[in-house]
Structures are given as structure tokens and as C-alpha cells.
Specification:
mainly alpha, 6-stranded mixed sheet, two-stranded antiparallel ribbon, 54% helix
């Protein structure tokens, strides 16, 4: 819808300030409302559309609504972790640690780089080979195993050439090389890194000619690019000549290097010998650095405990005993359903056992035990005292916790089965993958698909966590046999697929893969996968790859109605989730401001941008019926300027009534908080500076009328409005007279959870 003419419209939207110019939204080639690949499009000779087809779109919209409700509930439960650090494979023994600099695209400050390289030891000779290529070609690709120190190596190479005070720029791992090769905006003397490069969606996007031109442009400007990637990148012809196989440094050499830079601890000869032996068995530099730090801080015994990793040894010992199916199946099920109520787990475990039994009865080998064992999965099940057997089957690995139920059942605690340490779950899945083949994983995949389809939200969330852990060891299998199928299934499956991608971001080398998969679902893969992609680009994935997520969601807003609707809801969900991260919230507001400013007045693009803006202004916090705008004005310095610009744009459109209502709700929410007076005053100044005198007078009049509505006529709201606008008295222009009901919604809090239109 084009902008609605307003009698008080002033000049066009003011230009976005220089501070916002670093945002470069992707401009999609598609036009809103065009048919989508995979949709049933009637041909020219088609007759009248049957009634069921006419109902299909509303039915699918309702299904998508349920999916977004599920997403919002999961985000609300784990929101505290969304904007924390990414941990897992790059961390010491799986414990939480600061994520590698450069994992999230953006600027890498010198302090971050120097902190990451505090204990760095260049691996020889690959470091020297890579440095030579980088000096010669201005471009090098470090290939090799995950967790071998490639990321730190990329920073060390650029520091060697550009110096320790250089500010580096990390680029997106998906499509960044094609965009950089075609870009004319390479900055002189800049260091660029692309960590865990996964490739381009368009396989023709980067050819040898483009790579050569990129190298020439980098060299001409005195800039350098280092990429890290898996070993398969060496087989890509365009990149082959730029690859250097990477190796981790010698573990004992790295350990002694760390000890030299930490407070020294005296060691008995036998303790030192064992430490060196254990260190020599390690393959990840991060583990060795962690052991050296523990040694310096807590002593030799703690360091040895860390290196021995008793938790991993317990899991390996259990599997060395070759557990029978009666023990293996519950343990495997728990790896994908940890933490759900025990009674629910037992039911789902029985379903898994039935899948295994059906597979065995098909004539194949049993899933988990030798033929000579002579036992079936369910023999004597009633007499087995299955709950008591956890004390025998998983000593030191599994325990029970009493947890309260949600909401009105909060006083009713029940037992939940959990692993004794979070890492046990990862180790169990790793052993299952390493030791068992098709005879276990075929019925396992069937069972996981069943859980993704019919399980409750808690069950499906844990399935997503487990599948994300499995992706660390079998990404191709997870993508092909699970994610690809679920992303086009029913809404329960699609939510599970979206959550899996978000949980994959807990592992540094899988985060780029999750982004790549989500972006692939938007490319000619049908409307269902596009909606699943929009869901996936919220939460962790949208927080880590912020600009990629915004660009892709904005592109989806230009597509068919169903996809565009979902993209708008995802934008709102991003803002709702970003409330605890002011920097991310401000980026979203700046992005939408920029898109409005770039769109021509009356254009379809501007109508789409204004719709996004009003939904953001109406959004409520996930955990409370109050506007997100109020929370941002309290906690995010600088938000007033961006919110003011958005409100001005929407007030001069067909969404004026909703904009006034959103402003009233914000004032009502903030009325008893003296600390926000300055932010409200700043909001009013931002709006006044962007409006003409007649527009400002009209807003004062409209707001004065709206605040008489019973929903907003609350003590304190009018006084805060006076801080926003000054005196509300004065005779308004005749052309601005409207009734209260024509200006605002009669509901004080319209339903905008997850971005639903009102």
C-alpha cells in the first residue's frame, strides 16, 4: 500500500545520518506478491479455483502462527543465552568460553586480537608458507581440521603483516567472497578475515577470474584477506592455488610456551612427566591452553583432572562394555530427549524401542547386540524395573532431578532424567556415531522424525538440541535426512528444523553451516522452506549473523504474501529477542530507518518498510504485556533517535492510527519511571526535528485526543506526553479534527506477539 496522503505532510523522509551509512541492506530483485517456486499457480486455461484451494492460504497462515508462537516460547525460555557467548567446540573441553574473535561478522579490535593470540605459537612450516602466499598474493586460504587453530592463525598472519594495532574486518562466511570480489569498496590497508567459509549459494558466483581480480585489487590497495575453511575447499578449482593445509602446533611446545607466560608452578618430576604425556595426547590448542591456565591457577592435580577428562572416560568405558539393547536404547533416547519429564521420556523411549524392534524383525541384524545375546528389545520389559536400572546402566552419567511444572502447575514437581554433566550428552552422541551404523541410525532417524512431527514443544526442542550435537559429527547426514525433510514438512517439523539451526550456532564451526543452510532454503526451494528459513533467522542465528539475517528477511518481505508475512514476524521476533542486547536492537531500528529512507514515496518498497516499522513499534516484550519500545527507551541509549524517526515516518502513512496508539501505550508504560524522562524528551526532540510546524501541531492534537481514551487516561501518562511534546493545549487546525475512535485502536494492547498484524 502506498503512503496515505496527509494534509500536513512535509518534506520527504530526512536522510539517515552518517552513523547509519555502514548498513548496506540487500536490495532484492523480486517484487512483492510474485508467485513462489513450489506454489500451485493456475495456468491460463485453468478453471475456477476449487474451494479447498481458496482455504489453503489461511490454513497455512494459521499453521505458521502456531509455529511462531512455539518459537517465541522457546526464545523466552532461553533468551538469557541468546546474547551470551558462543561456546562448545572452540572452548576448553566444551566449557563456556569467549567465542573466537571474528566469528560474528564485524570489526575485530586490536585488543580482541591480542587477547586471542596471547599464547600463540606459529605452527611450522605451514605458518611460513601461508605468510609467503599472503605477502605475494594478498590472499590465502587456511584449510584443515576443525579446532586446529585456523582462526587464530588467520589473525596472527594479518598481525604479522599489518601490525598489532590494526583493526580487522570479519566478513560473513556465506556469499561474502562473491560480494567482496565484485565490490569496489575495499578499503586501503585493511585486513579481512572470513572464518569457516562455506561457499556461495550460486556455484558460478566465484570463478578463477574473479579470484584473480580480487587478489589484484587487494594488492593494489595494500589490503589482505585470510580465509579459513574445511579441507574440501582445496578441491575448489578457483581457490586451489591459494590454499595452505593447516596443522596445530606441537602440543608440548605450546604447553611450555603457555607456562612461560603464566605464573610458574613447581612440579615434582613424576607429575611433570605425566602432565607432558597427557598434553602430548591433546589435539586442540584450546584444550592445551586451558590446561596450562588451570595448572597456574589451581595446581597440578586440577590440571591432570582436566587432561584426564574423567567425564569422557566414563562414557567411553560404558560403550567399551558393549551395552545390550535394553541399556543402549534408553541411553540413546536420552541423548536426544534430556530433561523432559520422566513419564514423557518413558513413553517416547517405548516408541523408539518399537522402531528398533520393527527394524530387527525385517530380517536385519539387531541394533545393538551380538546375535548370540539372544535377547529382544522388549523381552521381560514389565519385570525389568527399568527406572531402577539407571543406577546400573549409566553409573555416574545419569541422574534425576525434581523440577516444577510451568505456569499454573508450578507447584507440581516431577522427575526429569538428566545427564550428570552437560558434556555427557555430547560424548554419548559421539560414541553412538562412531560405534554404530545403519542398523541403529535407520530406526533412530525414523524415531526422531516421529518426535519432530508429533512431540510436544519441550520434546521437539530437545530433539533439536540433540540433532545439533549430532551435526558436529554427521553434518551431511543431518542436513540430507533430517533438516531437508523437516524444513518442508508440517509446522511442528519446520519449527524443529529452525531450532536445530539455531542450536548449531553453539558450535563455532557449525554456525556458518547453519547460516548457509538457512540461506539455501530461501533460494527456489518453495514457500514452506522459505518460511522455515525466516523462522531460523531469529534467535541465535539472527543474533550471530545480524546483517545477513536482516538482509535475507528483508528480501523475503518482497516475496509472496505468506512468505512476506512470516518475514515481518521474524523481524519483530528479532527485536523482541534483542531487548537484552541494545547494540543489536539499535541495528534493527537503524536498518528499517535506512530502508524507509531509500524507498521512493508511494512505492511498494516503502509500503513494505512502513509495515515493518509499525509492527516493530507495536511489538510487546515476550515475557510481559508491555511495549518493546518502552524497554528500549529505558535500557538502550540512543534508541530515542531511531524510534523517533520511525514514528514520524509511520505517522505520515496509512498507519497513523496505529502509530498514535503505540505511542500512547509506550507513554502509559513509562509513566511511573522518572529515569526515562530524559529519553522521552530526546524522543520528542527527534520527532519534532523531523516534522514541519503543521505536522507537529497535528500530532499534539491527535495525541491529546487519544490520551482521553479510557485505556490511556491514566495518571502520569499525560504529564509524560507533555515532556514529549510540550503543552498539549491549543486549538488544532480544522483539517486535523478526528474522533478518538478514528485515531486509535480500542484495545490498549493489540495482538502483535511475534509480529502479527492488527
Amino acid at each position: 500500500m502506498a503512503d496515505e496522503p496527509d494534509p500536513h505532510d512535509g518534506p520527504a523522509v530526512p536522510p539517515v545520518s552518517a552513523a547509519d551509512e555502514d548498513i548496506a541492506p540487500h536490495v532484492p530483485d523480486e517484487v512483492a506478491g510474485e508467485p513462489e517456486a513450489g506454489e500451485d499457480i493456475p495456468g491460463p486455461d485453468a478453471g475456477p479455483e476449487p474451494a479447498p484451494e481458496r482455504r489453503r492460504e489461511p490454513d497455512e497462515r494459521d499453521e505458521d502462527d502456531r509455529g511462531y508462537d512455539d518459537l517465541r516460547r522457546v526464545h523466552q525460555l532461553v533468551n538469557n543465552n541468546f546474547y551470551g557467548v558462543v561456546d562448545a567446540s572452540g572452548a576448553a573441553f566444551g566449557f563456556g568460553a569467549v567465542s573466537s574473535p571474528g566469528l560474528a561478522p564485524g570489526t575485530i579490535e586490536p585488543e580482541e586480537m591480542n587477547r586471542a593470540l596471547r599464547f600463540y605459537v606459529p605452527p611450522r612450516p605451514c605458518f611460513d608458507e601461508a605468510l609467503g602466499k599472503l605477502r605475494r598474493d594478498a590472499f590465502v586460504v587456511l584449510t584443515g581440521e576443525d579446532s586446529s587453530g585456523r582462526g587464530a592463525g588467520s589473525l596472527a598472519l594479518l598481525r604479522e603483516i599489518l601490525g598489532g594495532e590494526a583493526r580487522l574486518r570479519s566478513l560473513s562466511p556465506a556469499n561474502a567472497l562473491a560480494e567482496l570480489a565484485a565490490s569496489r569498496d575495499l578499503k586501503p590497508g585493511q585486513g579481512y578475515v572470513i572464518l569457516d567459509y562455506v561457499g556461495e549459494l550460486n556455484v558460478e558466483a566465484v570463478q578463477a577470474y574473479s579470484i584473480r581480480r580480487l587478489g589484484e585489487e587487494l594488492a593494489r590497495k595494500g589490503s589482505y584477506l585470510v580465509m579459513t575453511a574445511g579441507g574440501t575447499t582445496r578441491r575448489r578449482l578457483a581457490l586451489r592455488d591459494h590454499c595452505v593445509p593447516w596443522r596445530a602446533p606441537d602440543p608440548v611446545e605450546l604447553f611450555e610456551h603457555c607456562r612461560d607466560r603464566l605464573p610458574r608452578t613447581a612440579l615434582a618430576p613424576d607429575i611433570e612427566r605425566e602432565l607432558r604425556e597427557r598434553v602430548g595426547e591433546q589435539r586442540r590448542p584450546a584444550d592445551i591452553v586451558a590446561a596450562a591456565e588451570v595448572l597456574s591457577r589451581e595446581g597440578a592435580e586440577k590440571a591432570l583432572d582436566t587432561l584426564r577428562d574423567r567425564c569422557r572416560e566414563l562414557v567411553r568405558e560404558l560403550f567399551r562394555k558393549q551395552p545390550c539393547a535394553d541399556d543402549l536404547i534408553p541411553l540413546a533416547a536420552l541423548a536426544f530427549l534430556e530433561g523432559i519429564p520422566e513419564r514423557t521420556f518413558e513413553k517416547q523411549c517405548a516408541v523408539f524401542a518399537a522402531f528398533v524392534r520393527d527394524w530387527e524383525q525385517s530380517g536385519e541384524m539387531p541394533a545393538a547386540e551380538p546375535e548370540s545375546e539372544g535377547r529382544t528389545v522388549l523381552r521381560g520389559a514389565v519385570a525389568q524395573q527399568s527406572r531402577a536400572r539407571w543406577k546400573e546402566r549409566a553409573v555416574g552419567l545419569v541422574t534425576t532431578e525434581h523440577r516444577s511444572g510451568p505456569s499454573r502447575n508450578a507447584g507440581r514437581g516431577e522427575r526429569h532424567l538428566v545427564f550428570t554433566e552437560p558434556r555427557v550428552r555430547e560424548f554419548v552422541i559421539a560414541e553412538l556415531h562412531d560405534l554404530y551404523g545403519y542398523e541403529l541410525w535407520y530406526p533412530m532417524r525414523q524415531w526422531l522424525a516421529e518426535m519432530a512431527l508429533v512431540g510436544d514443544l519441550g520434546t521437539r526442542t530437545e530433539v533439536a538440541r540433540g540433532v545439533a550435537l549430532l551435526a558436529r559429527h554427521a553434518l551431511a547426514e543431518v542436513d540430507e535426512n533430517m533438516l531437508k525433510v523437516w524444513s518442508e514438512g508440517l509446522i511442528s517439523q519446520r519449527v524443529t528444523a529452525a531450532l536445530t539451526l539455531q542450536f548449531m550456532c553453539d558450535t563455532e564451526h557449525l554456525a556458518p553451516q547453519a547460516l548457509y543452510i538457512a540461506l539455501g532454503w530461501t533460494e527456489n526451494s518453495g514457500p514452506r522452506r522459505a518460511v522455515t528459513a525466516a523462522m531460523a533467522l531469529t534467535g541465535r542465528l539472527g543474533s550471530l549473523y545480524r546483517l545477513d539475517a536482516l538482509n535475507q528477511l528483508w528480501s523475503l518481505t518482497q516475496r509472496g504474501e505468506r512468505i512476506a508475512f512470516s518475514a515481518h514476524r521474524s523481524l519483530v521476533l528479532l527485536l523482541q529477542s534483542a531487548e537484552q542486547d541494545p547494540e543489536h536492537a539499535l541495528l534493527i531500528l537503524r536498518y528499517v530507518r535506512t530502508m524507509i529512507a531509500r524507498a521512493a514515496r508511494g512505492s511498494k518498497e516503502r509500503s513494505i518498510a512502513l509495515r515493518a516499522a509499525i509492527q516493530l513499534l507495536q511489538a510487546e516484550r515476550p515475557e510481559a504485556p508491555e511495549p518493546v519500545t518502552a524497554a528500549l527507551l529505558r535500557t538502550a541509549p540512543g534508541s530515542a533517535r531511531h524510534l523517533g524517526s520511525l514514528w514520524v515516518d509511520v505517522l505520515h502513512s496509512g498507519h497513523r492510527s496505529r502509530a498514535v496508539g503505540a505511542l500512547c501505550r509506550t507513554l502509559v508504560q513509562l509513566r511511573d519511571d522518572p529515569s526515562v524522562t530524559g529519553a522521552v524528551r530526546e524522543l520528542g526532540e527527534a520527532m519534532r526535528n523531523a516534522m514541519s510546524a503543521p505536522q507537529w501541531a497535528a500530532l499534539r492534537h491527535h495525541l491529546s485526543i487519544a490520551l482521553r481514551h479510557p485505556d490511556y487516561a491514566i495518571p502520569g501518562a499525560r504529564q509524560l506526553a507533555q515532556v514529549l511534546l510540550g503543552s498539549l493545549r491549543g486549538r488544532p487546525p480544522g483539517s486535523s479534527r478526528r474522533t478518538t475512535t478514528s485515531l486509535i485502536s480500542t484495545s490498549p494492547f493489540p495482538s502483535v506477539q511475534g509480529g502479527r498484524s492488527t
